[in-house]
Design goal:
This protein is an all-alpha fold. It is built from 21 helices and no strands. It has two domains: 200 residues, MFS general substrate transporter like domains (Growth Hormone, Chain: A, Up-down Bundle); 235 residues, Growth Hormone, Chain: A (Up-down Bundle). The chain is globular.
C-alpha cells in the first residue's frame, strides 16, 4: 500500500526546482562543450579540424562505455541520502574542475595540445556521467505516478533549457568581455560557469528526496539481467542515440555557418538563443501525452526537428528565414530531448515487471548518459569528417565546396538522423499500450512484499 499512497503525493514546487537545477548545471557546462568545443579546438587552441574530430570521436566513444559502470555503481549504492542523490555531492567538484581544464589553453606543442585536449575532454566526460546519470536514475524513485514523472521531467528540462540558453547565447560575449584575447576569455568564462554549475548541484543535493529506496544494493549481474528482454528499453536507447546524433551535428557547426557562409559570426549567439523555443515543446508535452501516445508525440517532435533543419538549406542569406527555420526545429528538439527521459522511467518499471529487478541506475545510465555521449560524439565527429573532406582550414576564406559542406552539416545531416529516430520509435507503441497494467501489477507486488515484511 505504501507505493500506492506515495504515487498520489504531489512533489513540492521547491523540490521540482531542485531537480530542475541538476539539468541547468549539466547543460550550463555540457552545452558549452557540445556547442563550442570543435570551434574552440580549431580556431582558439590551434588544433587541426581532423585532429579535433579524432579527439571528439575517440573520447566520446571511450567515455560512452563508462555509462554502464556508473549505472552499476548507482544500483549498488545504499546511503541515508538515497541511491542517486549523493552523487551530486560527490561529483560536482570534479565536474567543475575538468570543465575548467578543458578551456585552460596551456602553451604546448602540437602533440602536447592534442593529448591535453584528449585527456581533459575524456575526464570531463566521465565526470559528467557521474553527475548526469543520477539525474535520470533518480526519476523513477522521486514518484511512482506517471503524470508526476512527466511534470518533474518537463520542469527539469526547462531548467536544462535555461542552462543551455545562458551558455549558448552569452558564451561568446562572455569570452570577449572577460579576456583581452580569446584564450584568456575562454579560460575566465569557464571558471565562472563552473562555479555556477557547482552551486546548482549543491542545491539539488540538499533539496531532493527519494521515496523508493532499495533495502540493499543490486549486484552487477542483477543490473544486467534487468535489461533481459526489455525491448522498450532497447528501442528507446537507439532512438535517443539518433536524436543526439542529429542535435550534435546541428549545433557543432553553427559558428562555422554564421562566420563563413553568412559572414556574421555573432549571429551564432542569436541562433543559440532561439533554441529557447524548445520550451514550447517541453511545456506542450504534458498536454500532448494526455491526447496522444508518448511514442507518437516523440515521433512528431523528431519529424518537426527534421523539417526545420531541411528548411535551413533553402533560407539562403535571409537571417529572418534562418531564424524561423531554426526556431521551428528547436520546438521539435524540445519534445525530442525531453520525452525519452520520462519514458526511460517507464522502461525501468517494465524491467522490474519482466525480470523482477528494479535496476534504475544501469537502465537509465545506458538510456541517457551512454546515448547522449555516443550520439554527441558521433554527431560532433560526423561534421568534422565532412569539413575535413571538403578542405576546411581555420580562419581563411572557404571555397565553394567547404561552404556547401558546412551548409549540408547544419541542415540535411541532422535531418537524416532525426527522421531515422522518428521512424524507429514506432516499434515502441505496442509496449506503451501495456504500461498501465504493468504499473498496477508492480504496486500489487510491492504491497505484498511490504505485508510479508
Amino acid at each position: 500500500m505504501g507505493d500506492a499512497i506515495n504515487s498520489k503525493v504531489k512533489i513540492p514546487f521547491h523540490r521540482m526546482l531542485a531537480y530542475a537545477s541538476t539539468d541547468a548545471a549539466g547543460n550550463l557546462l555540457y552545452t558549452t562543450v557540445t556547442t563550442f568545443i570543435l570551434y574552440y579546438y580549431t580556431d582558439v587552441f590551434g588544433i587541426s579540424v581532423a585532429a579535433a574530430g579524432t579527439i571528439l570521436l575517440a573520447a566520446r566513444v571511450l567515455d560512452a562505455f563508462d555509462a554502464p559502470i556508473w549505472g552499476f555503481i548507482i544500483d549498488h549504492t545504499h546511503t541515508r541520502w538515497g541511491q542517486s542523490r549523493p552523487y551530486w555531492l560527490w561529483m560536482a567538484f570534479p565536474f567543475a574542475i575538468f570543465f575548467i581544464l578543458m578551456f585552460w589553453s596551456p602553451d604546448l606543442s602540437t602533440t602536447g595540445k592534442f593529448w591535453w585536449a584528449l585527456v581533459t575532454y575524456l575526464l570531463f566526460g566521465i565526470s559528467y556521467t557521474g553527475v548526469g546519470t543520477p539525474i535520470t536514475s533518480i526519476l523513477p524513485n522521486l514518484s511512482n505516478d506517471s503524470d508526476q514523472r512527466i511534470r518533474l521531467n518537463s520542469t527539469r528540462s526547462i531548467g536544462g533549457m535555461i542552462g543551455y540558453f545562458i551558455t549558448a547565447t552569452f558564451t561568446l560575449s562572455f569570452v570577449g568581455f572577460f579576456g583581452h584575447n580569446a584564450q584568456t576569455g575562454w579560460r575566465n568564462t569557464a571558471l565562472i560557469l563552473a562555479v555556477i554549475g557547482f552551486c546548482l548541484l549543491m542545491f539539488a543535493f540538499f533539496d531532493t528526496r527519494e521515496i523508493n529506496k532499495p533495502k540493499k544494493g543490486i549486484s552487477i549481474l542483477k543490473s544486467i539481467k534487468a535489461a533481459k528482454s526489455n525491448w522498450p528499453w532497447f528501442i528507446l536507447v537507439i532512438v535517443f542515440i539518433f536524436y543526439w546524433l542529429g542535435n550534435a551535428s546541428r549545433t557543432s557547426v553553427v559558428v562555422y555557418y554564421t562566420q563563413y557562409n553568412l559572414g556574421q559570426k555573432g549571429f551564432a549567439s542569436i541562433l543559440n538563443a532561439l533554441v529557447m523555443f524548445q520550451i514550447i515543446g517541453m511545456v506542450a508535452i504534458p498536454f500532448l501525452v494526455k491526447k496522444f501516445r508518448k511514442s507518437y508525440v516523440l515521433m512528431a517532435g523528431m519529424f518537426l526537428a527534421a523539417f526545420g533543419q531541411i528548411l535551413i538549406s533553402f533560407t539562403g542569406h535571409s537571417l529572418i528565414g534562418l531564424s524561423a527555420a531554426w526556431s521551428l526545429a528547436s520546438i521539435g528538439t524540445g519534445i525530442s530531448v525531453t520525452l525519452p527521459f520520462a519514458m526511460l522511467a517507464d522502461t525501468v518499471d517494465y524491467g522490474e515487471w519482466k525480470n523482477g529487478i528494479r535496476a534504475s541506475g544501469f537502465l537509465t545510465a545506458i538510456g541517457s548518459s551512454f546515448a547522449i555521449k555516443m550520439g554527441s560524439g558521433l554527431g560532433g565527429w560526423a561534421p568534422s569528417v565532412v569539413l575535413a573532406h571538403a578542405g576546411y582550414k581555420a580562419g581563411v576564406v572557404q571555397n565553394a565546396a567547404t561552404l556547401s559542406a558546412i551548409k549540408f552539416s547544419i541542415s540535411w545531416l541532422p535531418a537524416i538522423f532525426f527522421v531515422v529516430g522518428g521512424l524507429l520509435i514506432l516499434l515502441y507503441v505496442k509496449f506503451e499500450r501495456n504500461e498501465t497494467s504493468i504499473r498496477s501489477t508492480l504496486i500489487d507486488r510491492r504491497g505484498q512484499l511490504n505485508s510479508e515484511d
